[in-house]
Amino acid sequence: MTALVLRYGARIPIGALIGLIACAAFLFIAIFAQWIAPYGLGEIVGDVWEPASPEHWLGTDNLGRDLLSRMLYGGQTTILIAAMATALSFTLGSILGFLAAVVGGWFESILSRFVDLLMAVPTLIFGLVVLSVLPSNLITLVLVMGILDSTRVYRLARAVATDINVMDFVEAAKLRGEGSGWIIFREILPNALSPLVSELGLRFINAVLFLSALSFLGLGVQPPDADWGGMVKENKDGIVFGVAAALIPAGAIAALSISVNLVADWILNRTTSLTGGRGDA
């Protein structure tokens, strides 16, 4: 069994392997944070900005809470919201992009102009305006982030689907009388997976950074809940005094982004080499 794992593991580039291990660790944190955190989310266990010690491995934060526990809970919140927003943006943008390419005509024109209108406003400014009016809860954050990010997915999906839609095997499916649903999910989607898989990783990274920026500006995850962007904001004043409490969540954001990007690049290279033009007809 070990030899089998080594044989197949050797085919994975070292960068991708590091990314996979890091992603698995972050996923483990997102699932089991409540069970592995040594203290409660808002439990005050010491003085302000205590250094690392056997009792508090990463020290304490600006209120005397255990920083390791806050990091675990904050990672769970950050990954959960980013994953839900990415799933929404990917699903909504891909389906609408494929529909626009297949249906065409006035439907594509209206949808594309609406997407252009949304993209004309910087995403962060748009999110700040909306969230300043609506409550910053989980559902609102996911909807705002997912809808704004779906515009990028829509443009990619529409461009890819437009190229595939004129290929011979798609034309053959239309001549057989297949409907739009068949053409989208059985003809276009399998041939559009490579760029979409790469975009999925980029959208997740963007969602993590977007959420962190919103929380740092005070319109993301609200106290007493924790996320990594909010933790940077809470502890930023400690940098003046040489306290690294704000740098730890910032480093976690960077590590998560890099690890996901390494895995996404590896998957893109594999799907590109294993899949090519398809011809069912």
Overview of this structure, please?
- The chain is mainly α and 281 residues long.
- It has one domain: MetI-like (MetI-like fold), CATH 1.10.3720.
- The protein has eleven helices and no strands.
- Helix 6 (138-165) runs antiparallel to helix 9.
- The relative contact order is 0.14.
- Residues 1-10 and 274-281 have low confidence and may be disordered.
SSE topology sketch:
Layout: H1 2-9, H2 14-36, H3 67-103, H4 105-120, H5 123-133, H6 138-165, H7 168-175, H8 180-191, H9 193-216, H10 228-235, H11 247-274
Helix pairs in contact: 2-3, 2-11, 3-4, 3-6, 3-8, 3-9, 4-6, 5-6, 6-9, 9-10, 9-11, 10-11
Question: What is the compact description of this entry?
Answer:
With 281 residues, the protein is mainly α.
Q: Notable features of this structure?
A:
0% strand; 281 residues; MetI-like fold; disordered N terminus; mainly alpha
What is the percent of helical residues?
over 70%
Distance between the termini: 41 Å
How many separate helices? Answer: 11
Quick one: CATH class? Mainly Alpha
Number of domains: 1
The oligomeric state of the chains shown is single chain
Query: What Rg, in angstroms, do the CA atoms define?
Result: 22 Å
Secondary-structure-based class equals mainly alpha
Q: What form results from the Cα inertia axes?
A: elongated
- Which range does the strand content fall in? under 5%
Q: What is the H-and-E element order?
A: HHHHHHHHHHH
Low-confidence stretches: 1-10, 274-281
Looking at CATH, the homologous superfamily is: MetI-like
